[in-house]
Amino acid sequence: MTTDYVAINRANWDSRVPIHAERYGLEKYRADSAWLSEIVRFDLPRLGDVSGLDALHLQCHLGPDTLTLARLGARVTGLDFSAPALAVARDLARDCGAQVRYVEAEVYDAVEALDGQRFDLVYTGIGALCWLPSIERWATTVSRLLKPGGRLFLREAHPMLWALCDPRPDELLVLDYPYFETEEGTDFFELKTYVQHDGDLSSPRTISFNHGIGEILTAILNAGLRLVAFEEHRSVPWDAFGAAGVRDEQGEYRLRERPERLAATYTLQAIKE
Protein backbone atom coordinates (compact mmCIF):
# COMPACT_ATOMS: atom_id res chain seq x y z
CA MET A 1 0.00 0.00 0.00
CA THR A 2 1.20 3.52 -0.76
CA THR A 3 -0.10 5.25 2.36
CA ASP A 4 2.27 5.20 5.32
CA TYR A 5 -0.19 3.60 7.72
CA VAL A 6 2.51 3.08 10.38
CA ALA A 7 3.35 6.79 10.67
CA ILE A 8 -0.33 7.78 10.67
CA ASN A 9 -1.29 5.24 13.30
CA ARG A 10 1.77 5.88 15.45
CA ALA A 11 0.97 9.60 15.56
CA ASN A 12 -2.59 8.76 16.61
CA TRP A 13 -1.49 6.38 19.36
CA ASP A 14 1.15 8.81 20.59
CA SER A 15 -1.58 11.43 20.92
CA ARG A 16 -3.73 9.03 22.97
CA VAL A 17 -1.04 8.34 25.56
CA PRO A 18 -1.62 11.31 27.94
CA ILE A 19 -5.36 10.61 27.93
CA HIS A 20 -5.01 6.87 28.46
CA ALA A 21 -2.36 7.35 31.16
CA GLU A 22 -4.91 9.43 33.08
CA ARG A 23 -7.99 7.31 32.35
CA TYR A 24 -6.72 3.71 32.44
CA GLY A 25 -6.80 3.46 36.23
CA LEU A 26 -3.08 2.75 36.48
CA GLU A 27 -3.03 3.84 40.13
CA LYS A 28 -4.88 0.62 40.98
CA TYR A 29 -1.77 -1.33 40.00
CA ARG A 30 0.47 0.91 42.10
CA ALA A 31 -1.84 0.72 45.12
CA ASP A 32 -2.50 -3.04 45.03
CA SER A 33 0.30 -5.48 44.20
CA ALA A 34 -2.28 -8.18 43.44
CA TRP A 35 -4.34 -6.10 40.99
CA LEU A 36 -4.76 -7.73 37.57
CA SER A 37 -6.04 -6.19 34.36
CA GLU A 38 -9.64 -6.89 33.44
CA ILE A 39 -8.56 -8.13 30.00
CA VAL A 40 -6.26 -10.84 31.35
CA ARG A 41 -8.58 -11.64 34.25
CA PHE A 42 -11.37 -12.50 31.79
CA ASP A 43 -9.19 -15.22 30.27
CA LEU A 44 -7.45 -16.58 33.38
CA PRO A 45 -9.18 -20.00 33.17
CA ARG A 46 -8.00 -20.32 29.55
CA LEU A 47 -4.54 -18.83 30.08
CA GLY A 48 -3.57 -21.25 32.83
CA ASP A 49 -0.31 -21.15 34.76
CA VAL A 50 2.29 -18.93 33.10
CA SER A 51 4.79 -18.84 35.96
CA GLY A 52 8.36 -19.25 34.77
CA LEU A 53 7.49 -18.79 31.10
CA ASP A 54 9.31 -16.43 28.76
CA ALA A 55 6.39 -14.32 27.50
CA LEU A 56 6.14 -11.64 24.84
CA HIS A 57 3.26 -9.18 24.77
CA LEU A 58 2.89 -7.73 21.27
CA GLN A 59 1.38 -4.22 20.92
CA CYS A 60 1.45 -3.73 24.68
CA HIS A 61 0.57 0.02 24.77
CA LEU A 62 0.73 1.30 28.39
CA GLY A 63 1.48 -2.14 29.79
CA PRO A 64 -1.30 -3.07 32.28
CA ASP A 65 -1.75 -6.48 30.64
CA THR A 66 2.03 -6.86 30.40
CA LEU A 67 2.40 -6.09 34.10
CA THR A 68 -0.39 -8.55 34.86
CA LEU A 69 1.47 -11.36 33.07
CA ALA A 70 4.52 -10.51 35.15
CA ARG A 71 2.42 -10.62 38.31
CA LEU A 72 1.25 -14.07 37.27
CA GLY A 73 4.89 -15.19 37.27
CA ALA A 74 6.00 -14.89 33.65
CA ARG A 75 9.27 -13.30 32.53
CA VAL A 76 7.75 -10.69 30.27
CA THR A 77 8.85 -8.54 27.36
CA GLY A 78 6.47 -5.92 26.02
CA LEU A 79 6.75 -4.57 22.48
CA ASP A 80 5.06 -1.50 21.03
CA PHE A 81 5.72 1.11 18.33
CA SER A 82 4.84 4.14 20.50
CA ALA A 83 7.75 5.60 22.47
CA PRO A 84 5.47 7.72 24.73
CA ALA A 85 3.37 4.65 25.55
CA LEU A 86 6.46 2.66 26.48
CA ALA A 87 7.66 5.49 28.73
CA VAL A 88 4.41 5.19 30.70
CA ALA A 89 4.69 1.39 30.73
CA ARG A 90 8.26 1.51 32.06
CA ASP A 91 7.26 3.96 34.81
CA LEU A 92 4.36 1.71 35.80
CA ALA A 93 6.55 -1.40 35.98
CA ARG A 94 9.21 0.45 37.96
CA ASP A 95 6.69 1.87 40.43
CA CYS A 96 5.23 -1.61 40.92
CA GLY A 97 8.62 -3.29 41.37
CA ALA A 98 8.08 -5.52 38.35
CA GLN A 99 10.87 -6.77 36.10
CA VAL A 100 9.49 -6.13 32.62
CA ARG A 101 11.57 -5.43 29.53
CA TYR A 102 10.07 -3.05 26.98
CA VAL A 103 11.18 -2.81 23.35
CA GLU A 104 10.16 -0.15 20.84
CA ALA A 105 9.39 -1.69 17.46
CA GLU A 106 6.63 -2.26 14.94
CA VAL A 107 5.19 -5.79 15.05
CA TYR A 108 6.56 -6.94 11.71
CA ASP A 109 10.06 -5.93 12.89
CA ALA A 110 9.78 -7.81 16.18
CA VAL A 111 12.07 -10.74 15.30
CA GLU A 112 14.95 -8.43 14.44
CA ALA A 113 14.22 -6.00 17.29
CA LEU A 114 14.36 -8.87 19.78
CA ASP A 115 17.60 -10.28 18.31
CA GLY A 116 15.97 -13.56 17.37
CA GLN A 117 14.87 -14.41 20.92
CA ARG A 118 12.07 -16.95 21.05
CA PHE A 119 9.36 -17.27 23.64
CA ASP A 120 7.19 -19.85 25.40
CA LEU A 121 4.17 -17.55 25.11
CA VAL A 122 3.24 -14.82 22.66
CA TYR A 123 0.28 -12.85 24.00
CA THR A 124 -1.84 -10.36 22.04
CA GLY A 125 -4.80 -8.50 23.51
CA ILE A 126 -7.89 -6.79 22.23
CA GLY A 127 -7.65 -4.11 19.58
CA ALA A 128 -4.28 -5.09 18.12
CA LEU A 129 -4.71 -6.96 14.85
CA CYS A 130 -6.79 -4.19 13.28
CA TRP A 131 -3.65 -2.03 12.94
CA LEU A 132 -1.82 -4.59 10.78
CA PRO A 133 -2.47 -4.84 7.02
CA SER A 134 -1.40 -8.47 6.48
CA ILE A 135 -2.61 -11.21 8.80
CA GLU A 136 -0.37 -13.71 6.96
CA ARG A 137 2.71 -11.64 7.76
CA TRP A 138 1.60 -11.29 11.38
CA ALA A 139 1.15 -15.06 11.78
CA THR A 140 4.56 -15.73 10.23
CA THR A 141 6.11 -13.23 12.65
CA VAL A 142 4.42 -14.89 15.63
CA SER A 143 5.63 -18.31 14.50
CA ARG A 144 9.22 -17.03 14.27
CA LEU A 145 8.93 -15.59 17.79
CA LEU A 146 7.76 -18.85 19.38
CA LYS A 147 9.91 -21.70 20.62
CA PRO A 148 8.90 -25.18 19.41
CA GLY A 149 5.95 -26.09 21.60
CA GLY A 150 5.39 -22.41 22.45
CA ARG A 151 1.87 -21.01 22.55
CA LEU A 152 0.09 -18.11 20.91
CA PHE A 153 -2.65 -16.66 23.13
CA LEU A 154 -4.92 -14.15 21.42
CA ARG A 155 -8.06 -12.42 22.59
CA GLU A 156 -9.34 -10.02 19.98
CA ALA A 157 -12.42 -8.15 18.84
CA HIS A 158 -14.41 -10.24 16.40
CA PRO A 159 -14.26 -9.13 12.74
CA MET A 160 -18.07 -9.00 12.77
CA LEU A 161 -17.89 -6.33 15.46
CA TRP A 162 -15.32 -4.34 13.46
CA ALA A 163 -17.59 -4.52 10.40
CA LEU A 164 -20.51 -2.85 12.19
CA CYS A 165 -21.20 0.83 11.81
CA ASP A 166 -21.19 3.05 14.90
CA PRO A 167 -24.15 2.59 17.29
CA ARG A 168 -27.41 3.85 15.78
CA PRO A 169 -30.32 5.55 17.59
CA ASP A 170 -32.66 2.81 16.31
CA GLU A 171 -30.30 0.15 17.75
CA LEU A 172 -30.12 -1.75 14.47
CA LEU A 173 -26.90 -3.68 13.78
CA VAL A 174 -25.77 -2.58 10.34
CA LEU A 175 -22.73 -3.85 8.43
CA ASP A 176 -20.86 -0.85 7.06
CA TYR A 177 -17.13 -1.68 6.99
CA PRO A 178 -15.18 -4.54 5.36
CA TYR A 179 -15.24 -7.92 7.04
CA PHE A 180 -12.39 -9.27 4.92
CA GLU A 181 -8.85 -7.94 4.69
CA THR A 182 -8.36 -5.19 2.12
CA GLU A 183 -5.07 -3.80 0.86
CA GLU A 184 -5.99 -0.16 1.41
CA GLY A 185 -7.60 -0.54 4.84
CA THR A 186 -10.24 1.84 6.17
CA ASP A 187 -9.46 5.48 6.80
CA PHE A 188 -11.00 7.02 9.94
CA PHE A 189 -10.99 10.54 11.38
CA GLU A 190 -12.03 10.39 15.05
CA LEU A 191 -11.43 13.25 17.46
CA LYS A 192 -11.98 11.05 20.53
CA THR A 193 -10.39 7.87 21.75
CA TYR A 194 -12.32 5.04 23.43
CA VAL A 195 -12.19 6.46 26.98
CA GLN A 196 -14.08 9.54 28.14
CA HIS A 197 -12.03 12.74 27.89
CA ASP A 198 -12.18 16.45 27.28
CA GLY A 199 -10.58 18.03 24.24
CA ASP A 200 -9.70 16.38 20.95
CA LEU A 201 -6.87 14.15 19.80
CA SER A 202 -4.07 16.09 18.13
CA SER A 203 -3.70 13.30 15.53
CA PRO A 204 -7.21 12.00 14.85
CA ARG A 205 -6.55 10.06 11.64
CA THR A 206 -6.10 6.26 11.61
CA ILE A 207 -5.98 3.50 9.03
CA SER A 208 -7.28 0.14 10.23
CA PHE A 209 -7.59 -3.31 8.67
CA ASN A 210 -10.13 -6.02 9.33
CA HIS A 211 -9.33 -9.72 8.96
CA GLY A 212 -12.03 -12.38 8.64
CA ILE A 213 -12.01 -15.38 10.96
CA GLY A 214 -11.20 -17.69 8.05
CA GLU A 215 -8.27 -15.49 7.06
CA ILE A 216 -6.93 -15.49 10.62
CA LEU A 217 -7.24 -19.24 11.08
CA THR A 218 -5.71 -19.99 7.68
CA ALA A 219 -2.77 -17.67 8.36
CA ILE A 220 -2.08 -19.32 11.71
CA LEU A 221 -2.20 -22.82 10.22
CA ASN A 222 -0.02 -21.83 7.26
CA ALA A 223 2.57 -20.42 9.67
CA GLY A 224 3.10 -23.84 11.25
CA LEU A 225 0.90 -23.37 14.29
CA ARG A 226 -1.62 -25.94 15.49
CA LEU A 227 -4.95 -24.57 16.65
CA VAL A 228 -5.82 -25.94 20.10
CA ALA A 229 -8.66 -23.66 21.24
CA PHE A 230 -11.07 -21.18 19.72
CA GLU A 231 -13.96 -19.63 21.66
CA GLU A 232 -16.26 -16.80 20.63
CA HIS A 233 -17.72 -14.43 23.24
CA ARG A 234 -20.77 -12.19 23.29
CA SER A 235 -19.03 -9.43 25.24
CA VAL A 236 -16.33 -6.81 24.66
CA PRO A 237 -14.42 -4.75 27.26
CA TRP A 238 -15.52 -1.33 26.00
CA ASP A 239 -18.95 0.20 25.38
CA ALA A 240 -19.30 -0.77 21.73
CA PHE A 241 -23.10 -0.74 21.48
CA GLY A 242 -24.33 2.57 22.89
CA ALA A 243 -27.97 2.44 23.94
CA ALA A 244 -28.27 -1.10 22.55
CA GLY A 245 -25.75 -2.45 25.08
CA VAL A 246 -25.61 -3.33 28.74
CA ARG A 247 -22.71 -4.00 31.11
CA ASP A 248 -22.55 -7.58 32.37
CA GLU A 249 -21.43 -9.15 35.63
CA GLN A 250 -17.80 -9.29 34.43
CA GLY A 251 -17.74 -5.60 33.63
CA GLU A 252 -17.87 -6.14 29.86
CA TYR A 253 -20.49 -4.94 27.39
CA ARG A 254 -22.93 -6.98 25.35
CA LEU A 255 -26.15 -6.41 23.45
CA ARG A 256 -29.09 -5.77 25.78
CA GLU A 257 -31.57 -7.59 23.52
CA ARG A 258 -30.73 -11.04 22.12
CA PRO A 259 -26.96 -10.91 22.66
CA GLU A 260 -26.71 -14.24 20.84
CA ARG A 261 -26.97 -12.27 17.59
CA LEU A 262 -23.34 -11.18 17.65
CA ALA A 263 -19.93 -12.64 18.47
CA ALA A 264 -18.15 -9.57 19.87
CA THR A 265 -14.75 -11.06 20.74
CA TYR A 266 -12.92 -14.38 20.60
CA THR A 267 -10.08 -16.18 22.36
CA LEU A 268 -7.70 -18.25 20.25
CA GLN A 269 -4.81 -20.48 21.25
CA ALA A 270 -2.32 -22.20 18.95
CA ILE A 271 0.91 -24.19 19.48
CA LYS A 272 4.11 -23.91 17.45
CA GLU A 273 4.82 -27.30 15.92
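^ that was protein a. below is b, sequence first then the C-alpha coordinates
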Amino acid sequence: MTAQPHFVLEQQSSAWCNSQRKRVVDIAFASLALVVTAPLMLVIAVAIRTTSHGPVLFRQWRSGLNGHPFQLLKFRTMRMMAAESGPGITRAGDARITGVGRRLRRWKLDELPQLINVLRGEMSIVGPRPDLEQYWRQAGEAERQVLSTKPGMTGAASLVFRNEEDLLTSVPESELAFFYVHRLLPQKARLDREYVAQATLWTDCSILIKTIFRIFSSHSFSQELKEMYEQVPR
Protein backbone atom coordinates (compact mmCIF):
# COMPACT_ATOMS: atom_id res chain seq x y z
CA MET A 1 0.00 0.00 0.00
CA THR A 2 1.55 3.23 -1.12
CA ALA A 3 1.20 6.38 0.94
CA GLN A 4 -2.09 8.10 0.26
CA PRO A 5 -2.78 11.82 0.50
CA HIS A 6 -5.25 12.58 3.26
CA PHE A 7 -8.06 15.06 3.69
CA VAL A 8 -7.78 17.85 6.24
CA LEU A 9 -11.37 18.76 6.91
CA GLU A 10 -13.29 21.18 9.04
CA GLN A 11 -16.58 20.02 10.49
CA GLN A 12 -18.45 21.37 13.46
CA SER A 13 -18.05 18.28 15.59
CA SER A 14 -19.43 17.76 19.06
CA ALA A 15 -16.99 17.68 21.96
CA TRP A 16 -17.73 13.98 22.36
CA CYS A 17 -16.76 12.81 18.88
CA ASN A 18 -12.97 12.79 19.21
CA SER A 19 -12.75 12.95 23.00
CA GLN A 20 -10.70 10.78 25.32
CA ARG A 21 -13.92 9.74 27.08
CA LYS A 22 -15.29 8.25 23.87
CA ARG A 23 -12.01 6.42 23.39
CA VAL A 24 -12.27 4.90 26.88
CA VAL A 25 -15.82 3.74 26.17
CA ASP A 26 -14.68 2.24 22.85
CA ILE A 27 -11.88 0.26 24.51
CA ALA A 28 -14.14 -1.00 27.30
CA PHE A 29 -16.96 -2.05 24.96
CA ALA A 30 -14.69 -3.61 22.33
CA SER A 31 -12.79 -5.61 24.97
CA LEU A 32 -16.01 -6.95 26.49
CA ALA A 33 -17.53 -7.68 23.09
CA LEU A 34 -14.46 -9.63 21.98
CA VAL A 35 -14.70 -11.84 25.06
CA VAL A 36 -18.46 -12.39 24.70
CA THR A 37 -18.39 -13.10 20.96
CA ALA A 38 -15.20 -15.22 20.95
CA PRO A 39 -17.09 -18.58 20.78
CA LEU A 40 -19.27 -17.29 17.93
CA MET A 41 -16.25 -15.96 16.04
CA LEU A 42 -14.56 -19.35 16.42
CA VAL A 43 -17.58 -21.06 14.84
CA ILE A 44 -17.57 -18.49 12.02
CA ALA A 45 -13.84 -18.96 11.43
CA VAL A 46 -14.23 -22.75 11.20
CA ALA A 47 -17.21 -22.38 8.85
CA ILE A 48 -15.29 -20.08 6.51
CA ARG A 49 -12.13 -22.15 6.53
CA THR A 50 -13.86 -25.46 5.83
CA THR A 51 -16.33 -24.33 3.17
CA SER A 52 -14.16 -22.20 0.89
CA HIS A 53 -10.52 -21.79 -0.01
CA GLY A 54 -8.67 -18.81 1.44
CA PRO A 55 -7.97 -16.91 4.65
CA VAL A 56 -10.56 -16.39 7.36
CA LEU A 57 -10.09 -12.61 7.43
CA PHE A 58 -10.49 -10.11 4.62
CA ARG A 59 -8.39 -6.94 4.77
CA GLN A 60 -9.14 -3.82 2.77
CA TRP A 61 -7.75 -0.28 2.85
CA ARG A 62 -10.36 2.30 3.85
CA SER A 63 -10.28 6.01 4.63
CA GLY A 64 -10.24 6.75 8.34
CA LEU A 65 -9.90 9.92 10.41
CA ASN A 66 -9.02 12.85 8.11
CA GLY A 67 -8.77 10.40 5.25
CA HIS A 68 -5.77 8.51 6.66
CA PRO A 69 -5.86 4.94 5.27
CA PHE A 70 -6.15 1.92 7.53
CA GLN A 71 -6.77 -1.78 6.98
CA LEU A 72 -10.37 -2.66 7.74
CA LEU A 73 -10.86 -6.21 9.03
CA LYS A 74 -13.79 -8.43 8.15
CA PHE A 75 -14.58 -12.11 8.03
CA ARG A 76 -14.11 -13.15 4.41
CA THR A 77 -17.47 -13.56 2.67
CA MET A 78 -16.31 -13.89 -0.95
CA ARG A 79 -14.35 -16.45 -2.87
CA MET A 80 -10.60 -15.86 -3.13
CA MET A 81 -9.64 -12.96 -5.44
CA ALA A 82 -13.34 -12.22 -6.04
CA ALA A 83 -13.01 -8.68 -4.69
CA GLU A 84 -10.54 -7.92 -7.50
CA SER A 85 -12.78 -9.41 -10.20
CA GLY A 86 -15.79 -7.13 -9.81
CA PRO A 87 -17.05 -3.78 -8.52
CA GLY A 88 -16.06 -2.56 -5.07
CA ILE A 89 -19.75 -2.18 -4.26
CA THR A 90 -21.62 -5.36 -3.37
CA ARG A 91 -25.30 -5.99 -3.78
CA ALA A 92 -27.59 -8.82 -2.70
CA GLY A 93 -27.25 -11.91 -4.85
CA ASP A 94 -23.66 -11.17 -5.89
CA ALA A 95 -22.31 -14.44 -7.29
CA ARG A 96 -18.92 -13.79 -5.67
CA ILE A 97 -20.36 -14.27 -2.17
CA THR A 98 -20.11 -17.73 -0.59
CA GLY A 99 -22.99 -19.54 1.08
CA VAL A 100 -21.60 -18.85 4.55
CA GLY A 101 -20.78 -15.31 3.48
CA ARG A 102 -24.40 -14.55 2.60
CA ARG A 103 -25.52 -15.37 6.11
CA LEU A 104 -22.68 -13.44 7.70
CA ARG A 105 -23.46 -10.35 5.65
CA ARG A 106 -27.19 -10.58 6.31
CA TRP A 107 -26.63 -10.41 10.05
CA LYS A 108 -23.55 -8.16 9.90
CA LEU A 109 -21.47 -10.86 11.59
CA ASP A 110 -18.68 -10.31 9.07
CA GLU A 111 -18.07 -6.97 10.83
CA LEU A 112 -17.09 -8.52 14.19
CA PRO A 113 -13.30 -8.44 13.53
CA GLN A 114 -13.56 -4.65 13.43
CA LEU A 115 -13.57 -4.79 17.21
CA ILE A 116 -9.81 -5.18 16.71
CA ASN A 117 -9.79 -2.01 14.59
CA VAL A 118 -11.50 -0.27 17.51
CA LEU A 119 -8.90 -1.46 20.01
CA ARG A 120 -6.15 -0.26 17.65
CA GLY A 121 -7.69 3.20 17.67
CA GLU A 122 -8.49 3.14 13.93
CA MET A 123 -12.23 3.00 14.46
CA SER A 124 -14.88 3.77 17.03
CA ILE A 125 -17.90 1.67 18.00
CA VAL A 126 -20.25 4.38 16.70
CA GLY A 127 -19.41 6.71 13.83
CA PRO A 128 -19.68 7.07 10.05
CA ARG A 129 -19.01 3.81 8.25
CA PRO A 130 -15.55 3.76 6.58
CA ASP A 131 -15.51 3.75 2.81
CA LEU A 132 -13.04 3.27 -0.01
CA GLU A 133 -10.77 6.23 -0.77
CA GLN A 134 -11.72 6.09 -4.45
CA TYR A 135 -15.31 6.98 -3.59
CA TRP A 136 -14.39 9.79 -1.21
CA ARG A 137 -12.25 11.38 -3.92
CA GLN A 138 -15.32 11.61 -6.16
CA ALA A 139 -17.53 12.97 -3.37
CA GLY A 140 -18.16 16.63 -2.67
CA GLU A 141 -16.58 18.68 0.09
CA ALA A 142 -19.75 18.50 2.17
CA GLU A 143 -19.76 14.69 2.07
CA ARG A 144 -16.05 14.45 2.96
CA GLN A 145 -16.67 16.39 6.18
CA VAL A 146 -17.67 13.14 7.88
CA LEU A 147 -13.98 12.15 7.73
CA SER A 148 -13.38 14.67 10.52
CA THR A 149 -14.14 11.92 13.05
CA LYS A 150 -13.20 8.26 13.35
CA PRO A 151 -15.28 5.81 11.35
CA GLY A 152 -17.51 3.45 13.32
CA MET A 153 -18.74 -0.13 13.29
CA THR A 154 -22.27 1.25 13.24
CA GLY A 155 -23.71 4.71 12.91
CA ALA A 156 -26.67 6.91 12.08
CA ALA A 157 -26.53 6.14 8.36
CA SER A 158 -25.93 2.44 9.03
CA LEU A 159 -29.30 2.19 10.77
CA VAL A 160 -31.16 3.80 7.87
CA PHE A 161 -29.27 1.90 5.16
CA ARG A 162 -28.99 -1.46 6.91
CA ASN A 163 -30.35 -3.20 3.78
CA GLU A 164 -28.20 -1.26 1.34
CA GLU A 165 -27.24 -4.38 -0.61
CA ASP A 166 -30.91 -5.10 -1.32
CA LEU A 167 -31.44 -1.52 -2.48
CA LEU A 168 -28.56 -1.80 -4.94
CA THR A 169 -30.02 -4.86 -6.69
CA SER A 170 -32.18 -2.54 -8.81
CA VAL A 171 -29.11 -0.68 -10.13
CA PRO A 172 -27.32 -2.04 -13.24
CA GLU A 173 -23.75 -3.12 -12.49
CA SER A 174 -22.34 -0.59 -14.96
CA GLU A 175 -24.00 2.22 -13.00
CA LEU A 176 -23.24 1.03 -9.48
CA ALA A 177 -20.29 3.35 -8.80
CA PHE A 178 -22.07 6.44 -10.16
CA PHE A 179 -25.27 5.67 -8.24
CA TYR A 180 -23.37 5.06 -5.03
CA VAL A 181 -21.19 8.21 -5.19
CA HIS A 182 -23.82 10.64 -6.46
CA ARG A 183 -27.04 9.28 -4.97
CA LEU A 184 -26.39 7.06 -1.97
CA LEU A 185 -23.20 8.51 -0.46
CA PRO A 186 -24.60 12.08 -0.14
CA GLN A 187 -27.63 10.77 1.79
CA LYS A 188 -25.47 8.69 4.09
CA ALA A 189 -23.04 11.56 4.61
CA ARG A 190 -25.88 13.93 5.53
CA LEU A 191 -27.07 11.59 8.27
CA ASP A 192 -23.54 11.12 9.54
CA ARG A 193 -22.82 14.87 9.52
CA GLU A 194 -25.89 15.40 11.69
CA TYR A 195 -24.60 12.73 14.07
CA VAL A 196 -21.10 14.26 14.20
CA ALA A 197 -22.52 17.70 15.02
CA GLN A 198 -24.56 16.54 18.02
CA ALA A 199 -23.02 13.25 19.19
CA THR A 200 -22.97 12.45 22.88
CA LEU A 201 -22.52 9.33 24.99
CA TRP A 202 -26.30 8.93 24.97
CA THR A 203 -26.69 9.20 21.20
CA ASP A 204 -23.95 6.57 20.84
CA CYS A 205 -25.74 4.28 23.29
CA SER A 206 -29.03 4.81 21.45
CA ILE A 207 -27.50 3.97 18.05
CA LEU A 208 -25.75 0.90 19.46
CA ILE A 209 -28.90 -0.41 21.16
CA LYS A 210 -30.97 0.12 18.01
CA THR A 211 -28.31 -1.70 15.96
CA ILE A 212 -28.28 -4.71 18.27
CA PHE A 213 -32.07 -4.76 18.47
CA ARG A 214 -32.46 -4.77 14.69
CA ILE A 215 -29.96 -7.59 14.29
CA PHE A 216 -31.58 -9.80 16.92
CA SER A 217 -35.22 -8.81 16.35
CA SER A 218 -35.74 -11.35 13.57
CA HIS A 219 -36.88 -14.78 14.70
CA SER A 220 -34.82 -16.38 11.93
CA PHE A 221 -31.49 -15.25 13.38
CA SER A 222 -30.78 -18.44 15.34
CA GLN A 223 -31.98 -20.55 12.41
CA GLU A 224 -29.54 -18.78 10.08
CA LEU A 225 -26.67 -19.52 12.47
CA LYS A 226 -27.75 -23.15 12.69
CA GLU A 227 -27.84 -23.50 8.90
CA MET A 228 -24.42 -21.86 8.60
CA TYR A 229 -22.96 -24.28 11.13
CA GLU A 230 -24.53 -27.28 9.34
CA GLN A 231 -22.58 -26.34 6.19
CA VAL A 232 -19.33 -27.13 7.96
CA PRO A 233 -18.03 -30.56 6.81
CA ARG A 234 -17.80 -33.12 9.61
